[in-house]
Amino acid sequence: MKTIIIFIFCASSFLFMQGQESFEYIFDKNNYDWGYSVFKGTDSYFMVGGTATGTGVGNAIVSKFSDANDIETVVILKEDTVSWFFFGAEKEDGNLMAIGGVRNTIGNPVFMRTLYICEMNENLGIVSEKYYDITPEGYSSIEFYDMVIDNDEGTIDNNLALVKLNMDGDLIDFNYFEDVHYNGRQQGELIVKFNGTGYYYFNGGSYEWTEFNNELEYIDGDYYLDDPHWINGAVSAKYLPNGNIAFVSVASFDEYYSDMRYSIFDSGLQSIWDTIVVEEGRQSPAIFKGMDYTDPENIWILNFNDWNTPTQIENYEIMVFDSGLNLKASKFYVGTTEYSFYYLIATQDGGCLLTGFTKQVQGSMYRDFIIKKIALEDVLTDTKENTFSDLKDVLVWPNPVTDFIYLKTQRQGLVFRLYGTGGQVVYETAIGNYGKNEINIGHLPRGCYIYSILNPNGMAIDGGKILKK
User: What secondary structure does DSSP assign to 357-398, as a single string?
Assistant: First the structure.
């Protein structure tokens, strides 16, 4: 089965809103719910995605919100038709243009047959709908992988499809071609070049980077950016004010497999700075976009564990970096079910918005889409009361360990407990909330251990596996 992968460019500009506070919203239904991307409007934010039943019937969804008490969600119901939204933008007249796909057969809603453009008014009422059958002969479906806002007349590009749309959702032109180097993926990143002369597409296939001009003609590309400074997995890229490009990706070699990689390249795609941060589990930035900023000295980055942990305790990390990708502060959040995040955007008030989904019960296929707003002061300072019950601030490293485990936290009254493979407690100690805690386990035999972090009430708030070498 062959598929065609789509990338969307539209001509527009976004307006921003002020004065956001932290909040969380979960769309709690007994369905498979995804929140794919989020974008700014004049007076509100919008999240687009979809909700599906276990029988493969899928319906596009749009949420409009300004805070936790002002959230409206609309489900697009179409008889005998699967619909799904992936991206969107606000038009100059204030209407919303949602972009996705439809098909008339039951199945995975990610794979669509027809391009679907839906214009909605400020009350989320449908103004117009447009459908374009752009799936070439011999192909079974299309997928939607990225969208950028450009100042051109509006174009769509990818490895197999070339499409033009204007901001009214009209199809201007369409073409496609096939090449092994452009076999796109959701984790790729598409950006407008700093000088406005074209586009870069990073990690979209066997080529790590591909360059196109404004006429969507291929200019250059290669398997590596600057060997050995590779990018891998879900990739997010963002121009810095000086024209350098900041990257967040996933390390993919030796002992650094599936750890977060932060790097900066110059305008010629030569490496300037590159580092890997080791965390437990298999780490990933948000799948579509995991890095953004409105102030380059406060760059937001999201890191989540994209594989289930053996302890059934799932966590994700929100980080703030300066323009040199030096870490300023971070916060960990923890829950008992799997999180997957698709999109992060910085808000004009200095905070950030996250969208994705969380499983209703670990091991279940039912998912709820999640919208989370995090204020800058929640991460940079400890003077504001924490908004989220799932916040954690316990860092445990290294892993594997030879003799010493180190812990750092700002919480009081926590206890570190270490279990052997038989479930017996082999070590326990209080954790200080000042500086770095050092725990010597050099006397313990080599092998695999399970640790828990207990709060003053004796409840486990974090945990994981530690390998003693």
Answer: EEESSTT-S-EEEEEEEE-HHHHH-SSSPP--TTEE-EEEE-
The token pair that represents 179 in the structure block: 């090449």
- 94 and 232 assigned to the same domain: yes
Nearest to 55 by CA among 80, 85, 86: 80
Q: What type of residue is 213?
A: N
Identify whether the C-beta of residue 345 lies closer than 8 Å to the C-beta of residue 288.
no
Stated pTM of the model: 0.68
CA distance 241 to 127: 38
- 260-265 vs 245-250, strand pairing mode: antiparallel
**Which candidate, 140, 156, 158, places its Cα nearest to that of 202?**
158
Task: Determine the structural domain holding residue 219 and report its residue range.
Answer: 3-392
**Helix, strand, or coil (residue 178):** coil
**Contact predicate 408/424, CB 8 Å:** no
pLDDT means per 10 residues, the chain with 469 residues, are: 38 35 67 78 86 75 80 83 87 90 70 85 92 77 71 42 69 59 65 87 80 80 79 89 93 69 91 80 83 95 72 73 88 74 90 83 69 85 42 70 84 86 86 80 89 78 78
Token pair recorded at residue 338: 């799997």
Main-chain dihedrals φ then ψ at residue 108, nearest 5 degrees = -60, 120
CATH no. for residue 260?
2.130.10.10
Report whether 210 contacts 198 (CB < 8 A): no
- 130, 170 in Cβ contact below 8 A? yes
* The two three-digit tokens of residue 226, written as one number: 């600057």
